[in-house]
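Re: weekly structure request thread

Next one in the queue (208 aa):
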Amino acid sequence: MKKEINIETWKRKSHFEFFSAMEEPFYGITVEVDVTQAYKKAKALNISFSTYYLHATLKAMNQLPAFKLRIDNGKVFEHNRIDASSTVMKEDETFGFSHVIYHDDLAIFNEALQQEINRVKQTDTLLTKDDYGENIIHFSAIPWVNFTSLSHARSFSYPDSCPKVSIGKMIEKKGKKTFNVALFAHHALVDGIDMAKFFDAFQNILNE
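Done, posted below.
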């Protein structure tokens, strides 16, 4: 389900028009996030840490209207639920794009995610579905590298307005566990204050 935003009366009308005209309207921020409590919670629940932080990412995204907006043929729509297309590593060290449906209940989310991971691992292509929909974020993890910045391969001619989240290697210093998170968003839809709101919400969820 989605609803159309009336651009003519939208407070972001001039921002939307300005940034939509750019060849590269995406921008990114990389932030260090404390995952000490989240790691403990995941282990206590016997859930993989990657599942736990993917769920936390989607939970934060679904709380923030700016990250639920997508551009379709020059129109802006707000979706009622945001899912994820996450990279899944295969046995041969290639990967495929999954389609992960968000559910607020972590146990239900985890069960569905494991089924989707198993499905993707049985494929031999990068694109494992015909249609992923627009109500997604592009999600990836690079758990081997503690990166401090990141860029993405993009086709400027392809109409894309989905936020992109990448998680780096978890490191531990003096009992505190952290990883870096790179967040990219379309500036016609998302401003710096929205980026800050995401990281605040994400950190609060991880601290629960």
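Strands lie at 2-5, 26-34, 69-72, 75-79, 83-89, 95-97, 136-141, 164-167, 171-173, 176-186. The radius of gyration is 17 Å.
Next request, please.
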